[in-house]
Amino acid sequence: MQKIHATTVIGILHNGEIALGADGQATMGNTIAKSNVRKVRSLMNGKVLAGFAGSTADAFTLIERFEEKLNAYGGNLKRAAIELAKDWRTDRYLRKLEAMLIVASKDDLLVISGTGDVLEPDNQIAAIGSGSMYAQSAALAMKKHASQLTAEEMVRESLHIAADICIYTNHNLVVETIR
């Protein structure tokens, strides 16, 4: 049985606005299995955003665990991310999950992986998934040379550029923001 995979997720913190977006494509082998998967979620009544790349069921499990950590630590994004990463690395069940997360609040943008990493990206741009380097490159250029754009506009344009290049990324976008 082939795994469902491939996507592009990008988050940008710019001028006091956070935007997190993803395409909608899920690929099984060399076939598009679904074109409108929703890979970005708003948590804690819109105060936190989470996006995922990887196995969908695994990612939903991780987002649920992350939300539990957020509630346990009073909405402290960094603490919740660190505690999830510790559990993810040490828990026998969680260790087998194949996904990555980008989480964000109005002040923070983090990437969480199953190897115990909690990364605060340079340039306040985080990207994961098969088209991540295309989207990140586009976002870096826009942030450097088109700073009048909003974070949401940069996320949308970065995802469209990635979709034009990466065969595992499409133009069905979902973008959430916190201003």
UniProtKB/TrEMBL annotation:
It is an enzyme of class 3 (hydrolase). The active site is at 7. GO terms for biological process: proteolysis involved in protein catabolic process. Coiled coil: none annotated. Na(+) binds at residues 163, 166, 169. Protease subunit of a proteasome-like degradation complex believed to be a general protein degrading machinery. This is ATP-dependent protease subunit HslV. It comes from Larkinella knui. The gene is hslV.
